[in-house]
Amino acid sequence: xxxxxxxxxxxxxxxxxxxxxxxxxxxxxxxxxxxxxxxxxxxxxxxxxxxxxxxxxxxxxxxxxxxxxxxxxxxxxxxxxxxxxxxxxxxxxxxxxxxxxxxxxxxxxxxxxxxxxxxxxxxxxxxxxxxxxxxxxxxxxxxxxxxxxxxxxxxxxxxxxxxxxxxxxxxxxxxxxxxxxxxxxxxxxxxxxxxxxxxxxxxxxxxxxxxxxxxxxxxxxxxxxxxxxxxxxxxxxxxxxxxxxxxxxxxxxxxxxxxxxxxxxxxxxxxxxxxxxxxxxxxxxxxxxxxxxxxxxxxxxxxxxxxxxxxxxxxxxxxxxxxxxxxxxxxxxxxxxxxxxxxxxxxxxxxxxxxxxxxxxxxxxxxxxxxxxxxxxxxxxxxxxxxxxxxxxxxxxxxxxxxxxxxxxxxxxxxxxxxxxxxxxx
Length: 426
Fold this sequence. Notes:
By secondary structure, the chain is an alpha+beta fold. Among the domains are: 82-89 and 280-366, Efflux pump adaptor protein, beta barrel domain (Elongation Factor Tu (Ef-tu), domain 3), CATH 2.40.30.170; 94-143 and 193-275, PGBD-like superfamily/PGBD (Muramoyl-pentapeptide Carboxypeptidase, domain 1, Orthogonal Bundle). It is 12% helix and 29% strand. The strands form 5 sheets. Strands 3-14-17-16-15-18 form a 6-stranded antiparallel beta barrel. A 4-stranded antiparallel beta sheet has the order 4-13-12-6, with no helix packed on it. The chain has a 4-stranded mixed beta sheet with strand order 5-7-8-11. The two termini are 37 Å apart. The relative contact order is 0.19. Mean pLDDT is 78; it is low at 3-61 and 145-186.
């Protein structure tokens, strides 16, 4: 539920305090107390009349004006802030697109942070490794042919039109015109795998410390040698070829979420989930009042420990969630349709060790700049209706009120000017 900080017209009533009754049987002391009280009251009245003692315009701006004091009409910027409820966390958990097939034999603990080169899970006791990139793994990567590979003898059913038979899912057809060795005793021309996916993989391989090749779009024999060294460190057969299910790409480090399977289950669509590693806030904002939720808007986040940190709107969902129980055609019904608003926190250290929990998000609802303002307590209700201000000579001027915020109110009218002294009603 959104909670808007607003103010109402208040009149502060003051009156003399009641002196405590002195002990009976001691008339002399009672008379002395009465005299002292009269002196104190007189002193306060004199100080108030002279505008001294913190009740007038010399009083700090952070303290509310006292009843009976005078304050000037000043120009200021008033900002109305609104609070909505949010949830601190790491964002929505996303399923890991595991392409390996088989039985899940190992899973990491939820909350584990994985980075480049780490094992996300094991399928048939084979590691699935995290690498960085935006292009998904869509094919096996490796040399399509080697210098020692020979074409098998021609048998019935083999191609005899001058084209070599393809071998394996990652093999590419031999270029037309290369021909085949007569009687099956020749050497096939090497054909290197090329593409942006090769460049992405080689960039990761080099970042992990396995070098000795040129990082480009060609999967060369030198690349295969580096792959073999990498496979040896993982305890895998040193084939020099990377299977489509051996790696998974993400834009950066990930935080492991809740698994969707147990050990021994077959790999499925929700085998494992992940989020980013940065804490953020998600607000289910009212769809009817989400004009504030614009990408880049600065907000203030109130944490459960009472501290506040700065945030920024990062994204606004486009799918409206209907309220529970539904609504009628006229919009009636319980609840409010909402949109998910994601807010990022640039200074992650400011959140401390908090990982999840309810928070409040404060945003600017309305703002008026360079307007005439007075403390809300200076407003008086006029007999003819509306509001007014009492000047120092005891006359009243009618005013039109605008935005209420931060204990002040916007005022305007023919007789209102900057610097005008007005009284705070007693």
